[in-house]
Automatic annotation (TrEMBL), chain A:
Membrane-crossing segments per the record: none
Domain of life of the native organism: Eukaryota
InterPro entries, A to Z: Longin-like_dom_sf (IPR011012), TRAPPC (IPR007233)
Record protein name field: Trafficking protein particle complex subunit
Protein localization: Endoplasmic reticulum; Golgi apparatus, cis-Golgi network
Gene source species: Paratrimastix pyriformis
Alphabetical UniProt keywords: Endoplasmic reticulum, ER-Golgi transport, Golgi apparatus, Transport
Complex and partners: Part of the multisubunit transport protein particle (TRAPP) complex.
Gene3D superfamilies membership: 3.30.450.70
One protein family per Pfam: Sybindin
Source species taxonomy: Eukaryota, Metamonada, Preaxostyla, Paratrimastigidae, Paratrimastix
UniProtKB/TrEMBL annotation, chain B:
Coiled coil regions, renumbered to chain: none
Source organism: Paratrimastix pyriformis
Origin superkingdom: Eukaryota
InterPro entries from the UniProt entry: NO_sig/Golgi_transp_ligand-bd, TRAPP_component, TRAPPC6/Trs33
Protein name in UniProt: Transport protein particle component
Family: Belongs to the TRAPP small subunits family. BET3 subfamily.
Automatic annotation (TrEMBL), chain C:
Family under the similarity heading: Belongs to the TRAPP small subunits family. Sedlin subfamily.
High-level lineage: Eukaryota, Metamonada, Preaxostyla, Paratrimastigidae, Paratrimastix
Protein name according to UniProt: Trafficking protein particle complex subunit 2-like protein
InterPro entries cross-referenced by the UniProt entry: Longin-like_dom_sf, Sedlin, TRAPPC2L
From TrEMBL, chain D:
Ribosomal protein recorded as keyword: no
Taxonomic source organism: Paratrimastix pyriformis
Protein name in UniProt: Trafficking protein particle complex subunit
Subunit details: Homodimer.
Family (UniProt): Belongs to the TRAPP small subunits family. BET3 subfamily.
Amino acid sequence: MTIFNFLIFNPSGLCLYFKEFPAATSSKNNPDSWKLMYGLLHGLKGFSQFMAPRPSPSGRYLRCLSTHEYKLHCFETATCVRFVISTDPRTPDLHDQLATIYNTLYVEYVIKNPLYKLGDRIDCELFVTRLDSYLRSLPCFASS
Amino acid sequence: MIGRSERMCSAACLELMHAEMVSYFLSARETRESAQKEMERLGFRVGQKLAERYTKDYGRITEPMEVLRFIFSDFWPVVFSKPPDSLTTNNNSLYYIEDTDFRWTSKISVTSRTTLEDASYFLTFPCGIVKGAFAALDVDADVKADFQETPSRCLFTIIFKGKAIPTR
Amino acid sequence: MINCVAVVGKSNAPLFLKTYHVPETLKFHYTVHTSLDVVEEKCTIRAPSSTVSTPQDMYLGLLYPTEEFRIYGYITATKTKFIVVTDDVDVRSPLMEQFCKNLHTLYVNMVCNPFYAIEQEQKIESPVFIRQVEQLVQRFNEGSR
Amino acid sequence: MANFARSGEMAFLKADKINSEIFSLTYGAMVAQIMKDYEDIEEVNRQLDRMGQNIGSRLIDELFAKTGIPVSSNFMETAEVIAKVGFKMFLGITANVVNPTPQQYSLTFRDNPMVDFVELPDNCANLRYCNLLCGVIRGALEQVQIKVECHFVRDMLRGDETNEIQVRFLEQVRESALDQSFA
């Protein structure tokens, strides 16, 4: 199991944060692949909403997208910020971990950092380092 | 000890409001120096009022050394949400208070567009508060603060003017 | 009966003076002013048992008696002084101490008004404070009758 | 409805808190200074509203992150969330929702730590001392794609028997609009 990359999208689809881990052999580090990914997530959201047998009480529909080669885990906040992590397909659901990242890292070190202007690329030192050590501490990271 | 007051509110409110205050002064004043002066003055006023409040049930403090102790062990933990880590001195008029997780700045970190200097404006108001508290208790002191590498580690320097505090 | 309550700032500027049931004559201003010397004197004396590190009482008790009045004092940690003038010969000290403590609470709340310039030792004009002190005096006077 | 009250309660219990006078004195000092900076009281109100908007646009994430309450983009539902969750978890008080309609609702509250100790000077009849709150609400709702107009219609500092903030619905920003900005 392993983590390939981690992304944060703002409500208008801009990629605010991108981090690629060494396990990713084909790089996604370019705006075109981000646009592609955002478009897919956005479309899937509508689709999963459409397919739902009943309305979701949490208002959330999309959790993950799995293929033979990778698995995309998604978490969308009420403010329409999307956290996405791509891993090995055997990795168990990381929805809760993404929620933790939102809750304890993004809100604390991005939102509450007055030097960060809302909408800017996220490069707050504290967030970047803490996120990195959090992701590295996940079991799915260690076993790569 | 100063108790918690009956009314509490979320620390996030204060943090975000303080951030707005800093940005207001930095944009409303012509120079950064004058913005800092204003913020320190505002903090001074707030510090005086808080000292007035928090000494009410504490008793009358008369010696500058007691004042320093009051600020360090009673006033600071309440106003800045946790006790500071250490109090040191190297002579009669210079004291250092170190707070390795200063809550008013602990979530700040620099971005590619900002520097530690931009973060340092968030220390001005707190310095004013401490200075105001000293002044309210009749100790004329200057209070400055610097980051120790990161904005969460702060070293406050307290410079006593006028009569020096005897070391014990 | 309390006849006069005064608040005097850190640097001895008069912040507040009101008389009750008697006209506000110069006499009271004079009495309050003189009592400040006694306050200062009392402050220099430490309770014999105390060490440097123990906070002192704010209530100073009877400052001095005159033919008509007895004058009580209280000083806060921030060196704001409360002077209370009463015409009672026999005041129960705990009651007076409680009165001063209550006055202190009202004072602190008044100071916390963001429009009160504490650093300028601004005269106290707050209608809320004036009313509350009056009520406090009234309660004291009813209780001591 | 009851679970909103509970979410607010729980979030307030868990939150890092400070004595409210530290907050109210800081706010008060700032308001007093802005009043010195601007002769026009209306401009003071605007400044407070603008600051509130900036705060609200960040505070909303704190609210969702710390309570985990479900996403809602229904205007009427936001009333309960603000009154029972927002007011509670940030200020430790609750507001009542009055006359909710799909176009507008009012939030009323009597208790407010922001105005503890405040006595307005005579020269500021039109000052909305707590106008920051209107900005906070506006800024917060903007982040969940709801545009509103928000103002104080009653203010206890000016002698009214309660505080009342009126929130009027303007528009819902659709996701399709977001798509366009992406394209």
